[in-house]
Amino acid sequence: MPLKPGDTLHNRYRIVKLLSVGGFGAVYRAWDTTLQGPVALKESKEITPEAETQFLREARLLFKLKHPNLPRVFDAFSEPGQGMYLVMDFIEGQDLQELLLQSGGPLPEAQALPWIEQVCGALEYLHSQKPPVIHRDLKPANIKITPQGQAVLVDFGIAKAADPGVRTLTSARAVTPGYSPPEQYTSRGRTDPRSDIYALGATLYALLTGKEPVEAPERNLGSDLPAPRALNPGLSPHLETAVLRALELQPEKRCQTAAEFRTALAPPALSGPTGTQVILGPPVTSTAPLGPGGGGRSQALPLPAAGKWPWGW
Q1: Is 211 exposed, middle or buried (0-12, 13-18, 19+ CB in 10 A)?
Q2: Residue 280 banded pLDDT, cuts 50, 70, 90
Q3: What is the DSSP letter of 266?
Q4: Does 174 or 228 have the greater pLDDT score?
Q5: Which of 18, 125, 220, 301 shows the greatest Cβ crowding within 10 Å of its Cβ?
């Protein structure tokens, strides 16, 4: 039975409202009566001894994580007969799924790409842990955008350490159609950092086209994945290439790291007159005289902004 507003857990966390619910648990907004602030409470209904062992192992792992694009996990506990709980920062703002619905179509590249770049940074950090931490549920609904424009990767309900010797429980094998890679659909499939690359590529596909990708099992059976530029002809060709590479069904054909994917998203460098590689930035206004009688009129000059992306990175 879902928790009700006003219920208090662990003699500390008072439920404010239900945020989302799934087959194995729910997420609540709660109030920390000790520290007097909002928190997110992630509930797992899997309460077998095996599930509790895995839950506590992964909670300790998440507790150690500190990154500006990730929420802090600062408490974990179980309630007899009810469930197990992770307590995390409550992130104010809207998620990318909400922003997509509001837009009614694709988001502009200049808006979506800085957020995806930030998520790449979070994945680089997660995957650099020993053992790597795999999020395994990356999708637009799990990326919050704060009022300050910061992207935060949330909901670590099925995150796990990449340990081939540890069997994944049924509750941790949940999938999201369109966003989960093929290896996440079977108990024999092994998820690794490249699984998150697929999900991030699927997320960017949705942001830039306004459509969810075709589900991985359907693609394995022969269904075609529409090219991003077929759905959004104004999309930059290099972005289409990067997204399709991230969405390769075979992990070895994808970008192998989040850093590699972030590099693939960058616009191609152009050769300057001396053979140097530059990236052109937006036009810069100059008030220099235009020659005799120029009178200091303004002129738009396509000056290169070395190291800058066209959208201001």
Answers
A1: middle
A2: very low
A3: S
A4: 228
A5: 125
Buried b (16+ CB within 10 A) or exposed e, 166-184: eebbebbbbbbebbbbbbb
137 catalytically annotated: yes
Q: How far apart are CA 178 and CA 214, in angstroms?
A: 5
Q: Which of 95, 137, 155, 196 is catalytic?
A: 137
Long-range Cβ contacts of 165-173 (<8 Å, 24+ apart): 166/54, 169/46, 169/50, 169/51, 169/54, 170/46, 171/24, 171/25, 171/44, 171/45, 171/46, 171/51, 172/54, 172/136
pTM: 0.80
Lookup: tokens for 20: 């989302």
Provide the pLDDT for residue 162: 61
Please state, as a whole number, how many other Cβ atoms lie within 10 Å of the Cβ of residue 137.
24
